[in-house]
Design brief:
With 59 residues, the protein is α+β, with helices and mostly antiparallel strands. The protein has one domain. The chain has helices spanning 10-19, 29-39, 41-50; strands spanning 24-27, 55-58. Strands 1-2 form a two-stranded parallel ribbon. Helix 2 crosses helix 3. The longest helix is centred in the middle third of the chain and has 11 residues, at 29-39. The radius of gyration is 11 Å and the shape is globular.
């Protein structure tokens, strides 16, 4: 199926979603694994909290 990861940095995606008033965020499973491996789960949680994202879905 090829690479299903987003070409856009997760930090930018979360920030832009928040700036647009979005309070939910969808992670693709491949993106979540990559971000977990690169930054760690605590950093992901902090990014979401800092940007007022309170609903998360993993697809």
């Amino acid at each position: 199926m090829g690479d299903q990861r987003s070409p856009h940095d997760i930090v930018d995606r979360i920030r832009l979603a928040s700036e647009g008033g979005v309070r939910g965020f969808d992670f693709g499973a491949a993106d979540l694994r990559r971000t977990r491996d690169d930054k760690g789960l605590h950093a992901i949680r902090t990014m979401l909290d800092d940007n007022w994202i309170n609903r998360v879905e993993v697809m």
